[in-house]
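Hey, resending since the last one bounced:
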Amino acid sequence: MPVPMDAFDDVRPAAECLDLLPGPVAAAIRDWRGPVPVRELRYVDTDPAIADTELLVEHYGRWLLEQSANCVVVAGKRGGEVTLAACLVLSTTRVDVNGVVRRHLGARKASFAPMDTAVGDSGMEYGGITPIGLPASWPVLVDAAVADAPYALIGSGSRRGKLIVPGKALAELPGATVLEGLGVA
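The structure tokens again:
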């Protein structure tokens, strides 16, 4: 089921809202390439006080939980090397950090990245990190269920606003790999 865009008061093409997005996200949308046209990416203006999924669902309704995806930053460590990766899973699941992510990154240990690192290295706000506009060196791991979704509601890079993006576009982001079982119940 696609995200019912009429459920929100203010939905616009993301390319028309670049001034509302953090620099890295705005640049990625401005320079958008790939088979999914940029016009299919939408920006939804939302109150930053309800940016967290639980509060958003409480405000807009339970249907939103099934249509939302969360992006978390993970740090994989092997020897002295640390690899930061973004993991995008449906909001009804959690990231399999110590299984799928650790193995995919070839890390001995994997854990959620410290907030200061995730925010500082991404150029985005905590609670709004999105896979669009992340550093090119970061792998972007996308759960197959997100890639298969007609549309997913994701962060916009800041706590104010969300993006509605076709799952297919998320699967085709630079550095993206679609993984079965990345999100677990």
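The helical segments are 23-30, 53-60, 63-67, 97-105, 115-122, 144-147, 167-171.

Sorry for the duplicate.
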